[in-house]
Amino acid sequence: MPAKPDHDKSKPEDPPHYHGHRERLRERFYSAGADALSDYELLEMALFPALPRRDTKPLAKTLIKIFGSFAEVVHAPVARLREVDGIGEAAINQLKLIAAAASRVTKGEVNSRNALSSWNEVIDYCRSSMAFAEKEQFRLLFLDKRNQLIADEVQQTGTVDHTPVYPREVIKRALELSATALILVHNHPSGDPSPSQADIQMTKAIIDIAKPLGIAVHDHIIVGKSGHASLRGMRLI
């Protein structure tokens, strides 16, 4: 009689289809660099450690569709990320880690160099820190006589379209830190960095108080999702 098939011995399962895709994506990343990958593909890779046994492509595409870009995904509020089907705490933690790492790297560039000679790094840091925030923040970069960063502080957080700023409090803090120069920064959650008349008036009020005390206001930078505006560059101050 023919032997009965041994039902206790199962055939080894084929690896999930996305394993090969992950390897191809990694190869492209290492051989051609990050610029060779689209936003959703880079996001797929970013989610690999958090979702080791899932195909991350559908989730990555969904996140890009909802938020718009890689940068907007990693800076999205945690509450909004939790509303996305299929995302868990491990994936959210991974995204927030990437956002924190980006901010830490750009801040390191600003810390180690003269702020005015590394202006692009200053802009990159301000954008990575504030451009995607849901509420307005007013940030102060305090500089010494060599224009190196002494402190970086968020002085006020407001609503979606307004932050109360008190010029005398700004100067008081500069004196406490023995700062000789300031860079003012705030964000426009609407995405449009164009300065308002109130932004210009507030900046001029700070300059008027700072100048007699020997404190220079180098610029007021407004950041948004679509770019940045420099009041000094626009000759508004």
Describe this structure in words.
By secondary structure, the protein is of the alpha+beta class. It has two domains: 88 residues; 119 residues, Cytidine Deaminase, domain 2, CATH 3.40.140.10. Helix 2 packs across helix 3 and helix 8 packs across helix 9. The model has no long low-confidence stretch (mean pLDDT 88).
Structure summarized in a few sentences:
The protein is of the alpha+beta class and 237 residues long. The protein folds into two domains: 21-108; 116-234, Cytidine Deaminase, domain 2 (3-Layer(aba) Sandwich). Helices cover 44% and strands 15% of the residues.
Note the topology:
Layout: H1 17-32, H2 39-47, H3 57-67, H4 70-74, H5 78-81, H6 89-111, H7 119-130, E1 137-143, E2 149-157, H8 167-176, E3 181-187, H9 197-210, E4 216-224, E5 227-230
Parallel strand pairs: 3-4
Antiparallel strand pairs: 1-2, 1-3, 4-5
Helix pairs in contact: 2-3, 6-7, 8-9
Query: Which fold name fills CATH's third level, the topology of the largest domain?
Result: Cytidine Deaminase, domain 2
Cα-based radius of gyration, to the nearest Å? 24 Å
Number of domains: 2
- Provide mean pLDDT, rounded: 88
Question: Strand sequence of the main sheet, in spatial order?
Answer: 2-1-3-4-5
Secondary-structure class: alpha+beta
User: What fraction strand?
Assistant: 15-25%
* Main beta sheet: 5 strands, mixed
Named CATH architecture of the largest domain: 3-Layer(aba) Sandwich
Helix content: 40-55%
Q: Tell me the CATH superfamily of the largest domain.
A: Cytidine Deaminase, domain 2
> How many individual helices?
9
Question: Any low-confidence stretches, pLDDT <50, length ≥5?
Answer: none
> What is the count of β-strands?
5
Give, in order, the helices and strands. Answer: HHHHHHHEEHEHEE
Question: Judging from the principal axes of the Cα atoms, what is the shape?
Answer: elongated
Q: Quickly name the level 1 CATH class of the largest domain.
A: Alpha Beta
Termini, distance in Å? 98 Å
Keywords: Hydrolase, Metal-binding, Metalloprotease, Protease, Zinc
Region (Disordered): 1-20
Biased composition (Basic and acidic residues): 1-17
Domain MPN: 115-237
